[in-house]
Amino acid sequence: MRPRPLALALLATALLFACPAAAQDKPATAPPAAEDNGEIVVTGREVRDDQVRDFVSGLTGNIGSDPLPRFVDAELCPVSLGLTPAFDAAITTRLRRVAMAANIRVAREGCRANALVIFAADKDATIRALRKGYPQLFYQPTGAPVRLRDKKEPVTSWVISDFVDSEGVAVPIDTETGQYVLESSGSVSRLTNPMRPIYRMSVLVIEIAAVEGLTITQIADYAAMRAFTGANPDRVRNAGVPTILTIVEAPIGSEIPNSMTAWDLGFLRGLYAAPPNLRAPAQRGRIARDLKQGTNAGSETGDRPAP
Questions:
Q1: Are 208 and 120 in contact, with CB atoms under 8 Å apart?
Q2: What is the CA radius of gyration of the chain?
Q3: How many of the other CB atoms lie within 10 Å of CB of 53?
Q4: With 0-12 CB in 10 A as exposed, 13-18 as middle and 19+ as buried, what is 244?
Q5: 212-243 core/surface letters (b: 16 or more CB in 10 A; e: else)
Q6: Nearest Cα to 300, choosing from 101, 80, 125?
Q7: Per-residue pLDDT tens listing for the chain (307 residues)
Q8: Rounded to the nearest 10 degrees, how much is the dihedral formed by the CA atoms of 222, 254, 216, 234?
Q9: How far apart are CA 119 and CA 283, in angstroms?
Q10: Domain residue spans of the chain
Q11: Does the CA dihedral 26-122-88-307 come out positive or negative?
């Protein structure tokens, strides 16, 4: 059975009250919050076409022609859970500011969460508790189980996705086959798709030990890149470009960004600005063009706290 948006919203509301109790005995501790002066200033530098192409391809990870998935038919409502109230509030505020800097539609404060960032002393135990208490979080609308990576890593993420038609209406699912059935194809061209994938909800579970010593800004910017895009850091770890996605598994003592970089913000803006029904190759081309223009411009102004 398809978990409808309202059902997912109610589930998220329940999680707000249940976490961190569902996952751990007491809130995990967090690093000191960085000062937030309400601005993002990211500095760019000359970039090569191949760098941009590889970065965009790595972050999208889409091998088909379907449009790239994103939160596009509902306002984004990011929420941090599992820390002390002050730290959760600071991270949630930063997540919202990053989204607005990327020109993503953001719901009013107090909204029903659809981008959950959960901090846990024991990530695996937290996921087991979530499976037991909120099994809906682990099934797609078709009834297929969510596939979590087997790799042992300090951060696990997944998304609940769905398909809508060119008008943004949910595509029906055949209850016998579990497949999407498009009843009206609408206008079709070589560059556009009659239906497209969207994110209904994203979940990011972070083991607190993995982010000790990082600032609130760094943690929230990393979480934003993963929760808002579904990006896999492994795909850009050796890309040779500055990105906040490298901070969690960077060797101790290595240089890491103080916050979201021009590459990160450029990708976020490009992803959410791309026409939603364009096929993936065309969307990637748009994102790459916008990203290169932004990084070569020298600076971007948005909403980045001072390091």
A1: yes
A2: 19
A3: 15
A4: buried
A5: eebbbbbbbbbbbbbbbbbbbbebbeebebbb
A6: 101
A7: 445 444 555 455 555 545 554 444 444 555 544 555 555 545 455 678 888 999 999 999 866 788 899 998 789 999 999 999 999 999 999 999 999 999 999 999 999 999 999 999 999 999 999 999 999 999 988 888 998 976 689 999 999 988 887 777 777 677 767 677 777 655 666 678 777 888 999 999 999 999 999 999 999 999 999 999 999 898 888 778 899 999 998 887 788 999 999 999 999 999 999 998 899 999 999 999 989 887 765 444 343 433 3
A8: 20
A9: 33
A10: 5-301
A11: positive
Of the candidates 260, 263, 189, 268, the residue with the CA atom closest to the CA atom of residue 228: 268
Residue in the structure block whose two tokens are 């959410």: 272
Q: What is the pLDDT of residue 22?
A: 43
For residue 163, give the nearest of 178, 141, 190, 137 by alpha carbon: 141
- Cα separation, 256 vs 41, whole angstroms: 17
Omega before 233 within 30 of 0, i.e. cis? no
Task: Quote the pLDDT of residue 224.
Answer: 98
Residue with tokens 């470009």: 241
Query: What pLDDT was estimated at residue 150?
Result: 65
Amino acid type, 214: L
> DSSP characters for the chain?
----HHHHHHHHHHHHHHTTTTT-SSPPP-PPPPP--S--EEE-----HHHHHHHHHHHH---SSSPPP-S-SS-B-EEEESS-HHHHHHHHHHHHHHHHHTT--BPPTTPPPSEEEEEESSHHHHHHHHHHH-GGGGB-TTSPBPPPP-S--SEEEEEEEEEEETTSPBPPB-TTT--B--S---S--SSB-SEEEEEEEEEEEEEGGGGTT--HHHHHHHHHHHHHH---GGGGTTS-S--GGGSTTPPTT----SS--HHHHHHHHHHHHS-TTB-HHHHHHHHHHHHHHHHHTSEEES-----
